[in-house]
Structures are given as C-alpha cells and as structure tokens.
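Troubleshooting: if your tokenizer reports a length mismatch, compare your output against this known-good record of 156 residues.
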Amino acid sequence: MMREIILKYEFVECIPYDLKDGTIYISIAFATAMHKCCCGCGNLVVTPLSPTDWQLIFDGQSISLYPSIGNWNFSCQSHYWIKHNKIKWAPQWSKKEINAGRIQDSLAKDRYFSSNMTSTVHDAIIGIRVPEESRLKDNFWRKLKNWLLAYYAANR
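Known-good structure output:
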C-alpha cells in the first residue's frame, strides 16, 4: 500500500517553473492544475479543467479533482484520486482498461464538442463563481498551448 499523502494547494496566475513536491498549483486563468506525480517519480501531471477533462472542487478549505488521475503515459502508471487534499490510491489498470478508458474519453469529447453547447471551461470549476465579464475569451486555447510549449521548452 502506498503512503498517505496530503497535498497543499496554491492558486496561481501562472504555473511556476519549479513545482514543489506535495503541492498542486491551480491556475484559474489557464483552467489548469499541475503537480508532480504523487508516486514520487517526479513527472509533471497536467490536469486541464474543462467539462470533458477534470473538474476542480474547492470548498474553501480543500480541493478535489474528478475523475481520478491515471498516469498511463508514465513508466510508474500511478493511479489515484485527489479528494479533500488527500491522495486516495486506486488500483492499477490493465492495458485493456486503459485503452477502454481512452476510447470512452474520446467519445465523451466528441459528444460534447459536436453539440451546440455554449459552456466555457470554467463550467468545470465547481464552487468557484467567475463573473461573466472575466470569463475566458476565444483565445484561451492559444494562450494555454503557448504557455505549455514555453514551459516544456524551458524545462527540457
């Protein structure tokens, strides 16, 4: 059994270049949360916040992410939930389960984006109300892509 981990959280404008172990960084502006993999491998885990990716729940004292985090592209293949700042370890998945999960995610994205929904990525942030005038504009994805490219280029 993996050790119990309690994460700290920091709301930031931009994700810092040097992430601390045991801290999850949340950027509302970029609708993204990042942390180092909780297994200790040191890999960076990016969890985009959107109706088809992860949802952030902030109750004023703790954060939770839904669904679970499955690091299938990492050699560790760690799998866990973040609930009320605590890591809840989940069973590892087989290759068949991983592939089925990927197909399900792809179908969910297809269904969501093929509909005429007008929701923004902020709909994934539960418990935080963003004033209408400060909601993300159409250039959000361009900003996020550029930020991620710059981040990874600087950390290679």
